[in-house]
Amino acid sequence: MSGYRTPLKRARGLGAAHHGAGHWIGERVSSIALVPLSLWAVFAALKLALYDYDSALTWVHEPLNAVLLVLLFAVSFIHMHSGLRVVVEDYIHKPFSKAALLILNLFVCGLGGGLAIFAILRVALSGAPYVSL
Amino acid sequence: MSPHLQVWRWHVTMLTSILHRMTGVGLYVGALIGAGWALALASGPDAYHGYMSLLASPLGRLVLFGLTVALFYHLANGLRHLVWDSGKGLDIKTANFSSILIIAFALAASVAVWAIAFSIGAVK
Q1: Where, by residue number, does the polypeptide cross the bilayer (chain A) (predicted)?
Q2: Is the CB of B41 less than 8 angstroms away from the CB of A57?
Q3: What is the largest CA-CA distance in chain A?
Q4: B38 and A119 in contact by Cβ < 8 A?
């Protein structure tokens, strides 16, 4: 009976990783979000390079800046996780090394993104804008 | 290794493909540097000044300039990948031309951003 199946039916869900459409789409959707976010990041970095500590705190207190920073970190770390995962899957073939690197990638992205977002929220939500004495 | 570097003649679309991965891995480190900035800001003025002076050091600047090139390259080539996903621009002539265009754009945009940074005093 399997002879009656179309090539698509056979191909579906049977790539090298036995899954991937969701991963592929997620990588592209996050890349679209990162187009404006990364351009904003360049603009933000130029501004922040001019600021001292107090001005940087005040800048992060701005709701739009805080939200864009959180989105920038969240989407970047999601996209980075997708991207490096493919690199590991392509080049590392020993099962243990591959699994270890995939888990390390997930944990680094989860921890890095989590810490960065927590730090931004902590600054942004810490009461009234910081005023230098 | 994939594709097989030892049997393939070097060509520009191969270079842009390899650069896309290399810049992606570079930007991975760049995002961790960005996360470090957020942590330093949340840790108080001393940590922040320490971190910012590290970024302003010669090595820090070299890394940041490299990240600027990596960002513009990965951004432009990523957009080209999205165009390719729609099935357009895949013929060899167009792909070769867009490869050169993207490398030139990444370098020009990076120099422009750093020229702006110098002119506004963000980099001294």
Answers
A1: 32-51, 63-88, 100-125
A2: yes
A3: 80
A4: yes
Number of domain units in chain A: 1
A49 touches chain B (CB under 8 A): yes
Return the C-alpha torsion angle A56, A62, A63, A66, nearest 10.
Answer: -10
Domains, chain B, in order of start with CATH, read 12-120 (1.20.1300.10)
* Within a domain: A104: yes
Domain that holds residue A27: 19-124
**Nearest-5° Cα angle at B69, A25 to B2:** 55
pTM of the model: 0.89
pLDDT tens digits for B87-121?
999 999 999 999 999 999 999 999 999 999 999 99
pLDDT at residue A7 in the model: 73
CB contact A87 to B (< 8 Å): yes
Each residue of A33-81: pLDDT tens digit?
Answer: 999 999 999 999 999 999 999 999 999 999 999 999 999 999 999 999 9
Residue A9 lies in a domain: no
In a domain, A130, yes or no: no
Q: B62 to chain A, minimum CA–CA distance in Å?
A: 15
Report the residue from A28, A39, A80 with minimal CB separation from B31: A80
**Is residue A129 a part of any domain in this protein?**
no
| Residue B9 pLDDT class (50, 70, 90 cuts) | confident
C-alpha distances in angstroms, B6 versus B1, B2, B9, B92?
9, 10, 8, 21
